[in-house]
């Protein structure tokens, strides 16, 4: 399981939600975490004496290693080999050099990366020898999340394991552990509740994963569900041509000195790319620094240029093949005979099962336009480059709605579904607003039948990527199936007494992608009583475990008995756990790391007065509540009513 050590600082100002949030630094995370403050004007928040800095640095070797990678400075790693007295001046000298190089007229500048949105007042660092450094910031908190941290947390706490782990894993497939399956089920259940059960105009179905191949022929998937693929002949790696970016490198005088390339989610690693560009200019005998890089997708690269583009795998030109189409559908054989005629496909999306059941639902349910059919289910795509943990896998789940409408209503309904989806992400799933963005697909990039498509994006640690799409697909799918099957897929217009094939709006969301976004958004680190804590701030509505019941001591029968009774009552309503081992603080931390929003402690006072302590995960505040009122209070906090 090797994930890129993507680094992520947060939060990102709402005004900049379209900027990819990657490539920041972990230099001395203690410098960053929780020590950067709010204010339009940079406010000095934390003054580090040399010794404090040294301590921060000493306890964060990890950060220096990561910084090392970013800067490509082999000497920084050896900081830890030098006597500690040298650490402060060396580190301050380095900081000074780094920050002064980025200084803006006001003396403040983005910290490490334009995406970190943390400013540094370099005036306090005029001399590398000063023993004080002042860090100022624009936002309340600054935390760092790496995909490696997240992947290891997921494994450690039983959220996600690599599939076939015993055998070294299987690329593009993932298994969900005890906490993971609960979180996933919560996401799906809440989506179903909000999109189907609480609406009068949407009904649900559950269609087969394998259907007639004729479905995929009619829908166009057989001929066209492909991604453009390029191979690197040297490394034998495959890439999606629309996810490889390249740029010409021009020297100061405009002379072309070669090309640089990278995968889409590496483009924010500007430093590494600039370094390569600098090298190319030098090797080509070019003049001055290189001009800004201007990236394009490899799919748009003229074929005659392909030989000059370096492979993202090796950095060497001349090894990439021209892009060619690769169909993403997994095939299998149905029945005892393996022959072309028995070939069938695992569905690459749940949507077609909805279209093919349109008539069944119309005939058997009391629905009339506008109405939607929803489905949650597995989809399979033989992705060329499954990457970034569960973001892009070969087996995943989708939650899709086909909302059937009259043609004239498409713009209004498209916007309404975008708003509905946005609200679901914010209010139900608790995604942090500053991490969610919007991307409107350009008209010339839309499928020929589509009117519009807008993605809601999320700032993952590896960059801003599509989380869900809301597409206005015209009447293409139903028309195709009507033509191919010879069946009428029309509705009556009561007003005009005519029949027509409805148009459709399709909100389509990946469960696994949302799962990852929920984890990224919830992941937090803070300090409680001087002790570092990792906490998953899931919204109570989707938290995998809602309540953790804690008997104060395990060797008192009365306390244990009372706690067990309470636990039995609570688990009838929600997924709850009971933890009896270890000090209470340690048990709180375990709950925090699993994202449990409420801990309920039964103690000696409970035996006397029938009250328990309810501790809030986020604020860590505790309050006494009578057992009689507990369920009502928790219901309000968890279910919102
Ligand atoms: P991408 O451009 O990222 O490949 P897409 O535009 O092909 O995605 P759609 O066909 O619109 O995706 O699928 C709808 C949703 O299904 C996506 O928004 C995403 O949430 C999810 N999804 C698609 N492909 C994958 C995958 N390989 N792994 C996990 N989720 C996926």
Commentary on this structure:
It is a single chain. With 641 residues, the chain is an alpha+beta fold. It contains 18 helices and 32 strands. The strands form 11 sheets. A 7-stranded mixed beta sheet has the order 9-18-19-25-22-21-20. It has a 5-stranded mixed beta sheet with strand order 29-28-30-31-32, with helices on both faces. The longest helix is centred in the first third of the chain and has 20 residues, at 178-197. The chain is globular, with a radius of gyration of 28 Å.
Pick out its properties.
globular, 5-stranded mixed β-sheet, disordered N terminus, Rossmann fold, 641 residues, 30% helix, 7-stranded mixed β-sheet, binds adenosine-5'-triphosphate, BirA Bifunctional Protein, domain 2, 18 helices, 32 strands, alpha+beta
Mean pLDDT over all positions: 80
- Under CATH, the topology of the domain at 179-221 and 345-519 can be stated as BirA Bifunctional Protein, domain 2
* CATH architecture type of the domain at 179-221 and 345-519: 2-Layer Sandwich
Strands ordered across the widest β-sheet: 9-18-19-25-22-21-20
How far is the first residue's CA from the last residue's CA?
42 Å
What topology does this entry show?
Layout: E1 7-10, H1 29-32, E2 43-49, H2 50-58, H3 61-71, H4 84-101, E3 108-110, E4 119-121, E5 132-137, E6 143-146, H5 147-156, E7 160-162, E8 174-176, H6 178-197, E9 202-204, H7 213-219, H8 221-224, E10 226-231, E11 238-240, E12 244-250, E13 256-263, H9 270-283, E14 296-297, E15 324-327, E16 331-333, E17 343-345, H10 351-356, H11 358-364, E18 371-380, E19 395-405, H12 410-428, E20 436-440, E21 452-460, E22 463-472, H13 476-485, E23 491-493, E24 498-500, E25 503-510, H14 511-522, E26 523-528, E27 531-536, E28 547-551, H15 557-571, E29 576-578, H16 584-593, E30 598-602, H17 604-609, E31 611-616, E32 622-626, H18 627-639
This protein binds adenosine-5'-triphosphate.
The site of adenosine-5'-triphosphate has 16 residues, from strand 19, strand 22, strand 25 and helix 14.
């Amino acid at each position: 399981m090797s994930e890129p050590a993507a680094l992520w600082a947060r939060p990102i100002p709402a005004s900049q939600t379209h900027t990819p949030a990657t490539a920041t630094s972990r230099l001395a995370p203690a410098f960053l975490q929780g020590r950067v403050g709010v204010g339009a004007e940079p406010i000095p928040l934390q003054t580090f004496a040399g010794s404090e800095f040294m301590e921060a640095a000493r306890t964060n070797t990890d950060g220096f290693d990561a910084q090392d990678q970013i800067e490509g400075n082999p000497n920084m790693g050896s900081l830890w080999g030098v006597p500690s007295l040298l650490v402060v001046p060396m580190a301050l000298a380095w900081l000074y050099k780094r920050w002064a190089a980025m200084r803006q007229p006001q003396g403040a500048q983005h910290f490490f990366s334009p995406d970190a949105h943390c400013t540094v007042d370099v005036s306090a660092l005029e001399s590398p020898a000063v023993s004080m450094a002042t860090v100022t910031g624009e936002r309340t908190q600054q935390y760092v999340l790496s995909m490696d941290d997240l992947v290891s947390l997921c494994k450690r706490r039983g959220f996600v394991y690599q599939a076939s782990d015993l055998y070294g894993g299987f690329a593009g497939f993932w298994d969900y552990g005890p906490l993971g399956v609960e979180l996933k089920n919560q996401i799906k259940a809440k989506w179903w509740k909000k999109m189907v059960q609480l609406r009068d105009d949407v009904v649900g179905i559950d269609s087969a994963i394998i259907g007639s191949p004729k479905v995929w022929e009619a829908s166009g998937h057989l001929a066209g569900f492909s991604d453009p693929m390029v191979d690197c002949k040297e490394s034998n790696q495959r890439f999606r041509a629309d996810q490889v970016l390249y740029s010409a490198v021009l020297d100061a005088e405009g002379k072309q000195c070669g090309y640089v390339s990278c995968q889409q989610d590496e483009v924010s690693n500007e430093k590494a790319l600039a370094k390569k560009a600098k090298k190319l200019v030098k090797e080509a005998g070019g003049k001055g620094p290189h001009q800004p890089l201007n990236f394009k997708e490899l799919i748009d690269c003229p074929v005659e240029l392909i030989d000059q583009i370096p492979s993202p795998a090796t950095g060497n030109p001349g090894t990439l093949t021209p892009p060619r189409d690769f169909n993403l559908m997994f095939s299998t054989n149905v029945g005892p005979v393996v022959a072309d005629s028995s070939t069938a496909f695992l569905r690459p999306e749940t949507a077609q099962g909805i279209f093919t059941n349109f008539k069944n639902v119309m005939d058997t349910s009391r629905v009339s336009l506008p109405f939607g059919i929803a489905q949650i289910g597995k989809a399979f795509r033989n992705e060329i480059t499954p990457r970034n943990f569960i973001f892009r896998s070969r087996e995943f789940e989708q939650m899709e709605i086909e909302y059937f409408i009259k043609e004239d209503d498409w713009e209004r309904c498209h916007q309404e579904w975008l708003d509905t989806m946005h609200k679901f992400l914010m209010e139900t799933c608790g995604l942090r607003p500053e991490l969610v963005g919007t991307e409107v697909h350009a008209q010339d990039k839309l499928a020929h039948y589509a009117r519009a498509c807008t993605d809601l994006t999320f700032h993952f640690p590896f960059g801003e990527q599509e989380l869900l799409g809301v597409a206005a697909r015209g009447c293409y799918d139903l028309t195709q199936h009507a033509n191919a099957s010879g069946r009428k897929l029309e509705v009556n217009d009561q007003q005009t007494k005519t029949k027509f094939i409805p148009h459709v709006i399709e909100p389509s969301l990946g469960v696994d992608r949302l799962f990852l976004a929920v984890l990224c958004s919830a992941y937090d680190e803070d300090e409680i009583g001087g002790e570092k804590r990792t906490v998953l701030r899931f919204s109570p509505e989707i938290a995998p475990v809602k309540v953790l019941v804690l008997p104060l001591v395990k060797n008192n029968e009365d306390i244990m008995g009372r706690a067990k009774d309470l636990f039995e009552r609570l688990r009838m309503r929600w997924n709850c756990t009971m933890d009896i081992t270890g000090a209470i603080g340690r048990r709180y931390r375990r709950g925090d790391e699993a994202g449990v929003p409420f801990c309920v402690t039964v103690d000696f006072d409970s035996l006397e007065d029938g009250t328990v302590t309810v501790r809030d995960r986020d604020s860590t505040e505790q309050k006494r509540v009578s057992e009689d009122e507990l369920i009502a209070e928790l219901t309000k906090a968890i279910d919102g009513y």
